[in-house]
Amino acid sequence: MVAKTRGQRIYSLEEQKDMLYNLQKYNYMPLKYSYFDYGAQRWIRFAQRWLRILKQDPGARGIHVFERVLLTEMIKSIFNSLPSHLYKNFNLIDLGCGDGSPMYPILRYLQLTMPKAKIRYNPIDLSPDLLSAASKNISRDFKVFGKPSRWDLESGSFSHITKGLNAPNFGNLYLFLGATFGNMYNQIQMLSDVKRSMLPCDYLLLAVELVVEKEIGTMVREYYDIREIYDLTFSALESFGLKRSAGEFKIIFNRKASQIECYYVPDKEMNLVTLEGKTVLPKREPVLLAISTKYTVPMITEIIEKAGFRICLLTTSIGNNYAMAMLQPMK
User: Fold this and answer.
1) What phi and psi values does residue 65 have, to the nearest 5 degrees?
2) Contact at 8 Å (CB) between 39 and 11?
3) Integer Cα distance of 137 and 58 in angstroms
4) In angstroms, rounded to a whole number, what is the distance separating the alpha carbons of residues 199 and 174?
5) Could you say which of 2, 116, 173, 265 is the most buried, measured as most Cβ atoms within 10 Å of its Cβ?
6) What distance in Å separates the CA atoms of residue 298 and residue 126, rounded to the nearest whole number?
7) What is the pLDDT of residues 65-116, one digit of tens each?
């Protein structure tokens, strides 16, 4: 009897079926499956490294740096935009939570300005490993309670999760931080599903990375230089026994879609075998492992409006590398 590969053990049959579908139809391994098992640990080390860099060099570059600086600068304005009569206590609903670290400026602010407020921290993610990490990190450093929920944000409305959070004197603040939104495949549909999971009086804080035309070449080179990108994006394929050394990575900026695209190009034909079947990765045919959309302000504004939200507050970082928008569902 042949032993199961790591991937056959850690992913559900439905997840393995979805991988096969995407590989066979689009030659695409969805990035969301890279955040399981040791892929989750790779992401956590990557995120924490950028936070250490920020402490040492306030002028450093990087998604996590841009977001932390902008969030810290704008935190007061963000919370002033919420109706105080509805937000005496907080349900913080962390979409695509990662290790929870993007939440720290928000929780520190609430701890300082509203020490008597009750705070529920409710992380939502597909990866059980990241859910566990976020819950442990936040509960260790802050006085919060709440419930982690495993859910694929690209699979539809999750109102069955969020309706249980509604309670008198609690306001629901959804958060899409870490530029995670830009990694999603069908962004308008996914944001529409978030809207369907919200009440009309709820708010959503959305953070995205912006594109700066003169810095595109530098940005692509930076992606090539971040070796952790290769480890992370190859994690799902690696879990099924594929060898990274049997191919090479290619990173491009797709101007039409305004997104970084990370590909793996096999040097030879490779077989990926799951419990739901197998597929062949042909020699020299690029496999898309990740996308990261970089927006302009008009571009993200259009997506927000098409998904059925109105913008209550929109702010960008110095240098226009990053943007945050406070949104509310339109009727």
Assistant:
1) -70, -50
2) no
3) 24
4) 11
5) 173
6) 30
7) 778 888 988 999 999 999 988 899 999 999 999 999 999 999 999 999 999 9
